[in-house]
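Changelog note: in this version the structure field was regenerated for every chain. One regenerated record is shown below for reference.
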Amino acid sequence: MLTEYYYESLVLLAKLFCLPYEVLYEPQLNKREYEIEPLKPNQKKNFENYFKSDIMLYDYFNKSLHYKIEDYGREKFYEEVDKLKVRLNYKQFHNLSYRLFTRNVKKMLSSACGRNRQR
């Protein structure tokens, strides 16, 4: 699984393990956007030397992922990725709505019960 191809990886894993997407999906927590400064040539060279085996693994799995996407059929595959995103967004929206609703109901009930006890 490659993080920059998260949804693509989920589609392939779900197919491989014959599982629904929801079993494999884990929502991103504390996602942040930040600026990345480009590496200077000497920093890049040091990075590539130090992480050579990691880069080789990444390249292998990146190529492997794209071969599998091609085997699946690129157009059909990305239709499946789009369906997955819609399905997960729908589920997240309804889970969030339910949590907010139950939290508000609990607050309302506790404040109503609190008023009744004070009388």
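Spot check on this record: DSSP finds five helices and no strands in the chain. The helical segments are 6-17, 21-24, 41-50, 52-72, 74-118.
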